[in-house]
Amino acid sequence: MNVKGGKWSIRLRKGVADRLWEDLILALIGDQFEDEDEVCGCVLSVRIQEDIISIWNKDESNSQVLNRIRDTTRRVLNLPPSTTFEYKSHNESLQDKGSFRKLPATNDRVV
Questions:
Q1: Is the four-CA dihedral 46, 52, 53, 58 of positive or negative sign?
Q2: Which of 51, 69, 90, 100 is the most buried (most CB within 10 A)?
Q3: Domain-located, residue 67
Q4: Helix (H, G, I), strand (E, B), or coil: what is residue 92?
Q5: Is residue 102 part of a domain?
Q6: Does residue 43 come out as left (phi exceeding 0), alpha (psi in the -120 to 50 range) or beta?
Q7: Which DSSP string do the residues of 14-77 spell out, in sequence order?
């Protein structure tokens, strides 16, 4: 259970999600994540104007682990350094009863 966890999310322009999703799945099953025990899932949300990939983690208390998950994701997906990752804890999601759409950008920082 990842009640103490959260998720990194990446907004994607239409047309790139298929390749990135495949690369992410192969990286996850191919042991490319140093903190693989902390990753408990991933999801691809297909939307009308954009797609969103999210990587769920078990525990948000260790910012070094969260940053390694983000950095590994950036590396295995070959994303440029300017790509914005947004982090949101599951607890925060439950409290605001909101969706990803309400989440402000964090400029690649764990908050």
A1: negative
A2: 69
A3: yes
A4: helix
A5: no
A6: beta
A7: TTSHHHHHHHHHHHHHTT--TTTTTEEEEEEEE-SSEEEEEEEES-TT-HHHHHHHHHHHHHHT
Q: Which of 7-11, 12-16, 80-84 has the highest mean pLDDT?
A: 7-11
Residue 105 in domain = no
pLDDT tens sequence across 51-96: 999 999 999 999 999 999 999 999 999 999 889 999 998 877 777 7
Does any domain span residue 22?
Answer: yes
DSSP label at residue 101: G
Q: Are the C-beta atoms of residues 5 and 89 closer than 8 Å to each other?
A: yes
Structural domain span for residue 29: 6-96
Task: Give residue 64's pLDDT.
Answer: 94
How close are the terminal C-alpha atoms of the chain, in Å?
21
